[in-house]
Fold these 2 entries.
Entry 1:
Amino acid sequence: MTQKKTQSYWGLVWQQFQKNRLSVGAFYLVLFLIAVATFGNLISNNKPVFCIYEGDVMFPAFKDYGVSLGITEWQGTFAIKDWKDLKYDSVIWPLVPYKASSVDLMNPVAAPSSEHFLGTDETGRDVLAGLIEGASISLSIGLVSMGVALTIGIFLGCLAGYYGGWVDIALSRLIEVVITFPSFFLIIIIAALYESSIWLVMLAIGLTGWTGIARFTRGEFLRVRNQEFVSAAQALGFRDTKIIFRHILPNALAPVLISAAFGIASAILTESSLSFLGFGVPPTQVTWGSILAGARGSTYAWWLAIFPGLMVFITVTAYNLLGEGIRDALDPKLKT
Amino acid sequence: MMIPTFIGTTMMVFFILAVVPGGPFERAVLQLKQAQMTSGEGGGAGGGEATGSTKLSPQVLDQLRKQYGLDKPIFVRYLIWLGVYPREVKSKTITIGKTFRENIEYVKVEGTTYEVQKWIKVEEENGNIVIFESGLGSDFKFSDDYEELPPAYEIANWYPNSDWEIKENTGEKVSLIQTAFSGVIAGDLGVSYVYDEPVTQLIKDRLHISLYFGLLGFLLSYGICIPLGIFKALKHGSAFDFLSSAIVFIGYSVPGYALGALLLVYFGGGSFWNVFPLGEFRSPQEIWNQMTFLEQVWDQIHHTFLPVLAYMVGSFATLTVLMKNSLLENLSQDYVRTAFAKGLSERRVIFYHTVRNSLIPLATGIGNLIGIFIAGSYLIEKVFNIEGIGLLSFNAIITVDFPIVLGFLVISTSIRLFGNLISDMCYAAIDPRIRFN
Amino acid sequence: MLKSTLKKTGIFFCSSLLVAFALTGCGDSGSDKRVIKKSDSGTQASTSNAGTDVSAELGGAGFTGEGWLTNTDSKPSGSAKAKKGGDFTMVMDEFPPTYRGMGKDTRHIILTMMEGMMYESLLAMDSETLEWEPAIATHWKISEDKTTYWYRINPEAKWADGKPITAQDVVATYNLLVDEGIEDPSSRGLYFENYETPVAESKYIVRVKCKKENWRSFIYFSGIPIYPAYYLSKIDGAGYLTKYQYQMMPVNGPYELDTDNTIKGETLVLKRRPDYWAANQKRNIGLNNFDQIRFVFVLDDRLKLEKFKAGEFDLYIPSRAQWWHQELTPESVDDIKRGLIQKQKIFNYKPLGTSGLAFNTLEEPFNNIKVRRAFEYLWNVDQLMEKLFFNEYERCRSYYGGSVYENKDNPTPEYNPDKAVKLLTEAGWTKKSGEKWLSKDGKNFEIDFMSDQSLERIFTPFQQDLEKVGIKMNLVNMTPQAKFEKVMKKKFKVSFQGWTGLFFPNPESSVHSKYAEELETNNITGMANKRIDEICDLYDQSYDVQERIKLLQELDGLATAEKHYAWGWVAPYGVRCVYWNKFDVPETGLTYSGDWRVIPSLWWYNADKAKALEEAKKDKSKTLPIRETIMDYWGKRKDRMANK
């Protein structure tokens, strides 16, 4: 490094990260997917993005966010009427003028066309709209289940690593038990036998996926806890919680981040597997896996297999590459 | 370590299964009514029956509950399943003064099953219920060692019996039971609700299929990935390295069963190319038995190709990349430089010293992978309709056949633990620094 | 444990003494527990005088049948043109867990079918007139008070091993059915609660007394498949379960299990018995033609279709209208275009059954008939039938669709959201200004709907139609068991439910008010109507078929008007199938009221066609004659068209 300016740790990491072009690409791809997930309502909606109706200027697709959050509501005719039947003075429709869940029985299993860019499934739902909605579902599955896993993993890892002794022994045993567990089998059991709910799936994935994180955290804590700054903090009489969260945890975050990226990838994969099998999410919820499952019923409909399959693949690859990139960036051995 | 892990996992699943809505009992009742209730698109398209079933009385339902062991608290059920609490193996309600045949053993001779039996008689003597038995006989003559058991009134000698216990005595009738410790510890995984056969038998019948695919996939993965990884490391940065990395990575993100489902749709006849059979382990036995040896080999390969591809796809990426990275790392180590400096040939340095050390991380994964290949492939077995233990247990989840689900759990946990042992051994074999006492 | 030691050493029963000792584990050592018979065993010999002929009065040779009932003029259901020979392969879902016909886990279609082909019952039923005809019994008699039945067994009736069928066999079969050891409490409940133990009055005459009067009891008893007593006497219920799980006792019907070709878990093969005792009876003309009937097993519906196309079995019954219309067409399947695969849709008078949305009328909101009617108006079944089912099905509008019991005056439900909204408003469900959902007393109209993979595509459109008027219906996927539990415990609001059609419906169990609030009954909707209760009671006491039909038609009208069901659709034909072109189909296609299960006994193999088929498979230029798809010998289709 020729640069003389002092660099923060994360700045250095970012610089390292940028060296791996593939990972950078993956990073932008992930950002793109997040954007799609966030602005899905504007790209694919059965309501206009912008319209002038009876003199009123409206942004119905934007308002949809408010409605789904419960902040605002559709009034009068707008709540009942199909927006496509209204007569507008001026209107801009989204790129995909369908909602993922809108059934069109006149058009089941239609091949890609100018009307439905990527075709429709067996109840006439637009595949592209489904892919867009699937993006936000898979993202939230990844984030929530990893959130659960992170919470449990970091908490138990902290306890084991910081206190050591019998706490460490007990928790390490617990981790080993959970690792030996055939977790996907358990997830299938839960998803297949209980009523379908997306939250249950997230919870199940989270509850079985925390072991790696706990191990990393524990390892970092064991490494760090005997260092001087920790002893100093203890000598100063700081509370344990403060030492753990303020002083040690930030140091242990880096490896946890890596396993979180991989974790998101595997959570997305798990969820699409479940949907493919017909378990997990409620029936009307469109996900990549559920579109894929439709391909088994109508084998000639290649568009039901290729597009969602591609989405799962791209997304999972992106998260994996991202994880890989972060790992390389953090690995001091490869630092130049 | 094994025991707490084992108890932890099984107990957890046992309790989850115990509280699911719609368990085996509902399945049984549903089956009794299935003739009438239909679902799906078929709607009312079912067949015509002569008469409908009548209402199931509360007694009938209680009887059924008892059959599924639901009359006991869940913790007791778990202990019975483990085999540390006695299980009711036989029961019989009989009028005092009457006799019945107790079946002692079932003997199979040339495809026919015979029963070894004895008569049991319940009598009242001075206000006490006494149980007698006759000697052993068989239902039909099959061996010189047993004579055919004659009717009870022809029996002259009765002996006291202590196998049966009296559970309940209503004055006119008595309920007799026999109990035994029979659970996982004794190798008894219970009897499947759906197949009506011991779970151990069901698993035994299918294990070789799962082993065949699992081990084949496993060996092929290692057999291809290690050389590929070495080659990639040596050609690091080349076009070949990049291209193979890309392919390997694609494989990593595609779940094996999904790939399998696609392969099956597009290559398994039907709407697209008819190149491979529609799954299954091999041709049906009838056809199989008529084949020549070469045809059999071909048939097996023909049936194996697609599933093994699906089996391997996931682990392929990890192994190749692991091998490559590990070798790269080793090549930059000091000892390699020393070896070269000593004037050893490049071939010897790479293949004798470096590769050997690079195999260590792969060896640690062996155990885990064996577990995944053999017991973690329920989805691939499902997609290809391969009658292995994975498909058995996957279907068992859907049909709420809990003895199989739990049995599979026991088997797969054991395989995993066994796999860990293998890992350690491989580790020791490759790394001279590690020695077990 | 004993078993394993014995197997390990490979020596079976070195000495009975040792074994007996080891088994009993009895304390008093050295006691030699052999089977020791009484010396005077001969005196108590069985009373049945086998070998000597029974007198005519007791049902033996020369029995006149005076004072007894019989039926000699029923029409045979088979075709006189039928030829014996060949084989037939059909596909079923899963290999059965047992070959038994009785005891636990025997509620499988395949087992009922097998049992029907292998074991005869006392009487058989004419498929068209539903009148009794002789099977094992030639004559029967019912006492004045209708509670005692007699059957006279045909002295010519024989078991597969040549032994005659006797009254003892009937007694022994009954005893097995009520044995607790067979772990089938519902069968025990049925037979134990309805009958006393039958009595063999002679070798050929058996009598059974009912515990209470009900015309149905005669149907149940006459239809019990009879097993051989000299096998049953050697075992109890528990022994039967184990020993006969994959083993057969001698049969008495036209087919038997082909143990050489049956492979457990893969293929089940039945072979025709050349020495079947009734083979030449009039009722069997043109029936039981195939030498071999093979069953193969494929669970996945889609896979079944692919395997059929690959030629792995002869007959396939597509479960989805879409496949019938879009995939099994001459355009997409060359073998259909060239006539190698034939398509056949056969109409007959099979009771069709019903399907529809069942409402739980014990709870809000469906305790109000207006809400139930509104739902009927909101469910666009016609659209479903057209778009999703390609007009393969018909609207159903009765509890007893397609049978004589159907009330022809029942209205056909219509789709009309405006009327629905009006009804909902009258019921108090209104939209507050600006609200999306209907509400009443501050509660939104929101219900859960129990769904699964097969229902999802059918009910998503309905969900959206409901949303438009402000009803929130959440589709919740669950297993069939879980759904069933909720329905049985009446923990549901609305559920899609189908019921198979019955020749002799049992209205009491599904609509009588005494079960309205009880759990675990077929009265899932909570039907409680005084007149319906009265009809149920009258129906159960009536021996007059015509009167029963009238009663049920009235009941159908009343119950349908209560709107406990919003009727769905029903398949109007007897069967819709595709098959490889090597069979001859009788002009009837199916029997008057049979379903696909009669095909293996009714159709026959045509060697010439089979040969032509093989050639056409090799030579892609050849075509075979294509049969008319629709068969309507019985005039059912015309009948229904006229009714519309």
Entry 2:
Amino acid sequence: MVDFKNSWIDNGFAIKGVDDELIIEQYVQDALDFSSQYGSDISISYTAYNISGRPSKYPDYGDFPQAFVMRTYGKWWDEAPSRTVNIMPQNSGNIVSQDYIDVTFEQKVYPTKVSIYETYNPGSVVRISAGDGLGMWKTLWEGEPQCVGPSPRIFSPEIASIEFMTCLLRIEFDHHQLDYYTELDAILLVGSSSPRKKADVGKITAKIKGMTINTFNNEIDIANTLNSLSSLAQHYTALLEDINNEIESSCLVSCSGPFDLLPDETILRVLSFLDLASLSRCARVNRHFNRLATDTMLYTQLNLKPYWSCLNARALQTLSTRCQHLQKLDLSWCGNYAMITSPDIVEFIQGCGKLLTVIRLNSCKYVDNRCIQEIAITCRNLKELCLRNCFNITPDGFENLKNISTLERLDLYRTYIESPPLLKILEASPYLKHINLGSCVRVSSMDIVAQGLGQYNRQLVSVDFWKTYSLTPLGVRALSNCPNLEEVDLGWCLGVSIPGDCMSSLANGCPKLKKLFMAALRGITDRDLLPFLKCTPDLEQVDLLGVRSITPHMCLRFLTTFKSLRLFDISFCDQIQEELVEEWRLQFPNVSIKRSFQSDGVPSPFQHY
Amino acid sequence: MQAITWTGRILSRAIWNGINNYSTNCTEPSPPLKKFEPHILSVVSGFPKEISQNKLKKGQFGDDAWFTAKFKTADVLGVADGVGGWRNYGIDPGEFSSFLMRTCERLVTSGRFRSAEPANLLAHSYYELLENKQPVLGSSTACVVVLNRDTSTVYTANIGDSGFVIVRHGEVVHRSEEQQHYFNTPYQLSLPPPGHSRLVLNDRPESANTTNFRVQDGDVILLATDGVFDNVPDQILLNELKSVEGERDPLRLQSVANSIALMARKLAFDQTFMSPFAKAARANGINIIGGKPDDITVLLATVAM
């Protein structure tokens, strides 16, 4: 092993010659892209930005604003009223990723080691991929999330070698097994200026390890398996094209043996359990199978998110011929780095969008006004539209959505929507049930929006105002017009800090509340929480993080009153002693009581002032 | 006798602090062959008011906090003085000022600021307090000085009674204005505990007093908390500052910073001395004499163009 001495240069990377090659260690230069963050875009606390540079907290362990934190942990979000239904779950395979972050480094290298500094609740990293910045991705490592103890760790798994130099990494996360939010301090990329030697035994072992024979669970296996087992195609994309070419040129008579005897419906039923990659493979067997495996009835629901690393415009085009009856489409995470462009989406929607009821385009940066316009024109029955992190849509683009009157779910997390188009959309959507307006920093008055919700969307079930600063008690009061409301996220709505009587209105107006997040509403007192005890018996998840003045007495009443309470976050509530929490945990084993902490441990040797 | 021993101890602590700072400034890597470029040479010195009770923390003297940072063509210095009254509420006043300065430092080193807008830097840092899960409560005065090397201009922002002095050719050429609501009650940024907001003075970060001033080679910049300005008469301060005009030797600069800090410390505890603080008090009809015991922070810098 090479001995790295810390010869730091300005931007945090070290160079040391070893024989004829150069070993470069570098920390993240920039967080290029990510799927979610706890913090807000107008701040640096708990944001993705914090992953850049050297570790600032490691080896301290705790909940620090200097770290990168994402929005979810555990299974709570899957149990909340706002949960979404997974489309084509068979595509996801064993390794499910919920979040990702793309980070760039200054120097391109052949990676030899990736070290992830986890300073709080480690264990959620499930995949590390290297990109060339032009849309090609290779997996360096993947594995199931780990259950590790509450101590800081540097996660540096054995990584596969790749044939190109990279300065772009994507880290994917699965938070399901976590007890609380995970926090990342830094990522160190170690690499060399020359590729690993061909005779490297490590490489071969890694390759064999990376191949899971007989289970084709996800794109990585496909890629690996095809690379090694088949010379026909390298990617799913290529596979798709290949099939088409083959079909056109072939004139073989069908001979599927006993399969010919089965009715098509039976085979289709069997095929419907297959993931997309397997379907494509079936389509290569013969004409009979090809006809069946490309049957439009198998493509009513399409989840391409697990294939984000290899999906491109041509694959989308090929698929469009089979998607005449497409109803649900999840294209999230796909097509960035110019793999798919806005016109491709427009064309796809034009061709296959007539019956679409669900469209998820989360983190698709290329989605712009033109796409939204096309969706608004073509998809007349659209019920769900998710546009998280779609920055390229302007208020004018959003305005098109007012032409859809069937919307039930609208996710606009971290988009640049503004109040006027949003109000028009709300007015046009009487059936709206779920809306996510988290971190929509350009909405100048969330109060008007909340009043709009109270006026036009009485069927509302869930609303997320996470980190929206313009919401005040006035807006919260307006929400009490929605009697079906089951979930309200007012986390970090600092404008609601001094709530007046709005919490009372909310509790009285929304008796079905199940999830109530009020993180960091510092001015909330026992008096504001009292009405919930009386009016909302079904509360399951309550977040009171940083609500400084609530008393142990009130917490105990919450725990005893709400029989179905499952999640209770009372982190940073200064008046609640740790001993009491321990006691409650024994007394109420069904409730997961969360207590986060920031500890001043031993000063980190990495810390630089 | 005892006095001498603690003076010795704190002096060595002060020097240690200063050298620490000096070394971070000096070891910050720069291309070795590049020619001399304009910069600020800065050192720090200071004393906490209650020496025995305080753990010495980097970047803090008691309730005072400071930072120095640079990004591209900007050198940034800052001091903040946590308002001590919060101790009665069980709140450590040093936490607020320290968080404010640490955040400024993070913002500067990451380039998230504009050198001509130091008030925005303060404001951004202040709003970052609101974003912390653990509520950091308290209040603080703050003063930030940014030297833009491209334009040879310093941009300053000041809230409250910390401040800066710029000395050239033996004269004060530029200095901060004190902002007070009334005697001994400076403007301050604050985050009161819930329920106390009405009783607390809370000045918006936007109310910072901002100035800009063109500096020349050799100018001396003193950035200090009220522990210095309230105890050391201007003339004495000026004499000290004069002696380091154009100083390039960090050790000599350090010794002057130390002597200013030590002087402030001594005068603060001199009960017969007619300090600037006592004079101001008398002007407000309060008949007192002697220095004002307080935390002391001295950031001393020379401009090398």
